[in-house]
């Protein structure tokens, strides 16, 4: 699928369900980009207005809930191992 519009990213902060995410939103469509797919840091953060070509596949969402679902489904491998690491550390701390 080819994207036919030129996204105008702006950095946004999303909060909900105890989760805070900083990512990019396209001013043209209002769609939220997955920060992991898009690599938010290099695309929009730290710049007031950035024009960035969309290269390859990125995931865009209408709501934070949709984005979180996507992160759970597609990027959960890294998250799970991180959570497991934290859980282990907490377990170790508790057993002391
Ligand atoms: Zn993603």
Explained architecture:
With 96 residues, the protein is an alpha+beta fold. The chain has a domain at 1-66. Helix content is 41%, strand content 24%. The protein has four helices and five strands, in the order βββααββαα. A three-stranded antiparallel sheet has the order 2-1-4. The chain has a two-stranded antiparallel ribbon with strand order 3-5. The longest helix has 20 residues, at 76-95. The N and C termini lie far apart (55 Å). The mean pLDDT is 77. The structure holds zinc ion (ZN). Zinc ion binds at residues 34, 36-37, 59, 70, 74-75.
Backbone shape: elongated
Topology pattern, helix = H, strand = E:
EEEHHEEHH
What's the number of helices? Answer: 4
Oligomer: single chain
Strand order of the largest sheet: 2-1-4
Bound molecules: zinc ion
What's the story with the biggest beta sheet?
A: 3 strands, antiparallel
Residues in helix, % = 40-55%
Question: Percent of residues in beta strands?
Answer: 15-25%
DSSP E strands, number: 5
Mean pLDDT level: 77
Overall radius of gyration: 16 Å
